[in-house]
């Protein structure tokens, strides 16, 4: 059976979509081919890389991509992970289905570096729980 192709989208493809891509690939990569992109290109957040390394997932080799870079790839599901991406891409035309599941932008966490990292950890853990529920063994997709 062919793997389903999943695309995660956020504004800059820097944190949320990168973490989602890494989490889904690490946990359920035997069933899903996973991609991520942004409505604009940036760079992968060093804090996102750090908090993913804390749980044994290496996304340091990832790079930020735009939605245009993956426009030629058909997807079974596209997921917008922030309200801005959802407003720009309410429907991803090369995806069979597009859904929205927004998560807080960890980059906007105020405070010290450790407090900001805690914001990234919180978002990482929220995405992980949602991925387990949505794509795990008893998942809905």
Could you name the ranges where pLDDT drops below 50 across 5 or more consecutive residues?
none
The first-to-last residue Cα distance is 15 Å
- The CATH topology name reads Rossmann fold
Shape: globular
Strand and helix map with partners:
Layout: E1 4-10, H1 16-28, E2 32-38, H2 46-54, E3 75-80, H3 83-88, E4 95-100, H4 113-135
Helix pairs in contact: 1-4, 2-4
How would you describe this structure in keywords?
4 helices; 141 residues; globular; 4 strands; four-stranded parallel beta sheet; alpha/beta; Rossmann fold
Q: What can you tell me about this protein's structure?
A:
The chain is α/β, with parallel strands linked by helices. The protein has one domain: Response regulator (Rossmann fold, 3-Layer(aba) Sandwich). The protein has four helices and four strands, in the order E-H-E-H-E-H-E-H. Strands 2-1-3-4 form a four-stranded parallel beta sheet. Helix 1 (16-28) crosses helix 4 and helix 2 crosses helix 4 (113-135). The longest helix has 23 residues, at 113-135. The protein starts with a strand and ends in a 6-residue tail after the last helix. The model has no long low-confidence stretch (mean pLDDT 94).
Short description:
By secondary structure, the chain is of the alpha/beta class.
């Amino acid at each position: 059976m062919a793997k389903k192709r999943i695309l995660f989208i956020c504004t800059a493809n820097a944190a949320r979509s990168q973490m989602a891509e890494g989490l889904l690939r690490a946990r359920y990569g035997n069933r899903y081919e996973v991609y991520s992109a942004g409505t604009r290109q940036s760079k992968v957040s060093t804090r996102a890389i750090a908090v993913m390394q804390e749980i044994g997932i290496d996304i340091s080799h990832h790079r930020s991509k735009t939605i245009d870079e993956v426009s030629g790839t058909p997807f079974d599901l596209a997921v917008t992970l922030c309200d801005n991406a959802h407003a720009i891409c309410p429907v991803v035309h090369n995806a069979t289905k597009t859904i929205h599941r927004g998560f807080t932008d960890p980059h906007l966490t105020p405070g010290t570096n450790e407090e900001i990292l805690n914001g990234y950890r919180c978002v990482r853990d929220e995405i992980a729980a949602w991925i387990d529920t949505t794509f795990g063994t008893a998942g809905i997709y």
